Write the structure tokens for this entry.
Amino acid sequence: MQLTLEEETMLAGEHGLGKRKAMELLVALGAIYGADRLIPITSAHLSGVSYKTIGEGGIEFLEEMAKDSKVMVRTTLNPMGMDAERWREMGVTEHFAQRQLHIIDLYRQMGVEVNCTCTPYLLSNRPKVGDHIAWAESSALSFANSVLGARTNREGGPGALAAAIIGRTPNYGLHLDENRRPTHIIQVEEGITKDEWSLVGHAVGRRLGACVPFFRGLGNDVNGLKSLAAAMAASGSVAFFMVEKVTPDQPSSLEGLETVHITRKDVEDTLQRLTSATEPDLIAIGCPHLSETEMKQLATYLEGKTKKSDVEVWFCTSKGVYLRCPKERAVLERFGMVLCDTCMVVAPIEGVHKVTASNSAKACSYLPGLCSQKVLCGSQRELLELII
Ligand code: F3S
């Protein structure tokens, strides 16, 4: 990789230890993927926030970086392992809470915005078409690539942090035009609703793996697309997809591409594959984090109804959306907890719950392995009907 004089001096340690380590990481990534140079980024989004996922090893790395490093671009954080105010109600231990707050403090010292969400694009960190960015969090980066027209690879937490500290990222993969072309056409059967796009995404990712699907006639529902992005990234590592008339960089030709049909049967099979239990002790909605529109839809549906079961219910969202929805929160709080900055997958629920229900194919894929849960996968309405 060709480095500028300034980059060479950062690599030599003349700008401090943190910048040297960040440069070493970027240079190593650039060498692995054949990048020609570093390119400037406009924002970063970091994963590796929950104490559950990074542990003491991750804290040591962050302590080292925080000694003399600051981020150079707007940088936001993924969900952490707990709601900063309601962690006791979630069943989180004192030890976990202390270590989690220490992690957040380290990021704060580096100049990172410490609202923790996987939907930063609904709030302050919304890249523009053509922006080069370095985002970790598979659902968010796929949304940024595919719906917003920004350009990012599927970064890991350390790579995204290194890019944030240098303000640059290696030029390879989805930063380049030649890798932003569709590999398959996806035709979704009529009658499959946007509430089922999460299952559609899981089916596509499972069938095709890391591809660039081009969806015909899907439409532009933001909430449906964020669920689709999350599920496809989880089942197939898809970091970029195209939607007809929605994705800013539309393909010049679809000639010769295979068409894959996603049918009602695929959706039902996916639902069954993800389900391993019927009686949840936790119902968790909000993967990816609930948007303002989703909070309103939930509140409208639940208004005037009564909770008839003692199953614990979580509505997971970002602090920004939480603050914008006081009326909706009041309705939802009669049925469960509206939690900020965390989610059912990165919180340590395995110590408290055994069976979790979710309407997210991404959450349902990860809950068995990351949280030792049996899972009930259902539509939002089916899940709410278990308690009203
Ligand atoms: Fe977000 Fe957690 Fe789902 S990070 S995409 S709510 S698994």
The radius of gyration is 21 Å. The longest strand covers residues 282-290.
